[in-house]
Design a protein that fits this description.
- The protein contains 4 helices and no strands.
- It is mostly helical and 84 residues long.
- The chain has a single domain, classed as ACP-like (Non-ribosomal Peptide Synthetase Peptidyl Carrier Protein, Chain A), CATH 1.10.1200.10.
- The longest helix is centred in the middle third of the chain and has 15 residues.
- It is globular.
Length: 84
Amino acid sequence: MKSILNNENTFLEFTANELMVSLDEINFETEFRSISSWSSLNALIYISSINEETAVFISSADLAQLVCIRDIYNLILSRSNGTI
């Protein structure tokens, strides 16, 4: 299985799929709360999927501190400890 953290494009593809948007609608500077499908339910599903794929837990409090997709990616990388 290809890790969603192999590279930025893989993570963007994962994010687009999870948030049900096309890849050309988002980039690493996209403020995820501005994505049309973003909702509290989709946020929970998204962070749950991240946990399943990476074994990294992101809480809703963590998410509240983040702004863009790059922030999420960097947080996951910082918590992965090279295990991904």
